Amino acid sequence: MSAQDADRRRPSRRDLPGPALGILRPVPGHSPLHRAWAGTKLVVVTVLGIGAVVNPSVVVLAAGWLLAVGTFVLARLPAGVIPRPPPIFAAFLATSLALAWLGGDPVSWLRLVSLTFLLTFAAAVVGWTTPTSDLAPAMARLGRPFRALRVPVDEIVATVALTVRCVPLLGAELRMLRAARATRPRPQAATVSARISEAVDLLVAVLVASVRRAEDLGTTVRARGGVPAADRGERGPGPGDVVAMVVSALVAVLTAVIVP
Can you tell me the distance from the alpha carbon of 69 to that of 85, in angstroms, rounded to the nearest whole number? Predict the structure, then answer.
């Protein structure tokens, strides 16, 4: 097998992100969605979200899901990248649905849940097909017109970029704390006060780990001379990206205005 064929192979289970915080880890691939400019994906997801929030009708939500699932298939992403929520999450959804049903408005609950999952899934597709290093330059280029309005674009982009970079680090810290907790002996009869005390200890440990990571990151950034300009040397959108952004904007406007 040649090197080019090895690069174009379908990602194996080892290449897939873990179940925790996996939506922010790119999956290797050479699909048209992987090659698209990161700013195009951000604009399409933003426009899709605005259109669905302004008019969360059944037709708009169905069109949004059709677009999201279509891009997922176009990117040739395996189904294994989709995180598997814990059983308590399904129990929470069932309980909230029962309460909405008793309240007499289950349709609004279904729309809200569908909209939430739609935006999360669309953002996850962007994360799976876009390297995290491409997000900040794309945001900086998209925010150039707002600099004339004295909007702190560079500061916002730097904050978002550092946040995206730190989420995997925080996930690693949480997994390490979870492993350390599993090695601790548990009492035979855990009372309510003991469980509350254990939860407080875990919360304090998470906060301490987060502060330590933030301090290390700040020291590294200062040692490198601060945060550089995010859009330096970054390629801009191509003709196909411009067409995709214009079409998505027109579709969102039409669905928000025309569709009841």
Answer: 19
Q: Alpha-carbon distance 75 to 77, whole Å?
A: 5
**What DSSP state is assigned to residue 233?**
T
- Indicate the burial class of 121 (C-beta count within 10 angstroms; 0-12, 13-18, 19 or more): middle
- Residue closest to 205 by CA, chosen among 176, 167, 165: 176
Sequence letter at residue 145: P
How far is the C-alpha of 243 from the C-alpha of 234, rounded, in Å? 20
CA distances from 134 to 162, 236, 239 (A): 13, 11, 19
Is pTM, for the whole model, over 0.90?
no
Residues 6+ apart with CB under 8 A from 121: 68, 72
Look-up of token digits 């989420």: 167
CB count in 10 Å sphere of residue 145:
10
Tens of pLDDT, residue by residue over 134-154, are 888 888 888 888 888 888 888
Structure tokens at 160: 């978002």
- Type of residue found at 161: A
Q: Which residue in 77, 81, 83, 78 sits closest to 33, CA to CA?
A: 77
**102/15 Cα distance (integer angstroms):** 45
Is 148 in a helix, a strand, or coil? coil
Place of tokens 């997994």: 175
Sign for the pseudo-dihedral over CA of 237, 233, 74, 160: negative
At 18-60, the pLDDT tens digits run: 444 456 678 888 888 888 888 888 888 888 888 888 888 888 8
Closest CA to 139 of 167, 104, 163: 163
Tally the C-alpha atoms within 13 A of residue 163's C-alpha that lie toward its C-beta. Answer: 8
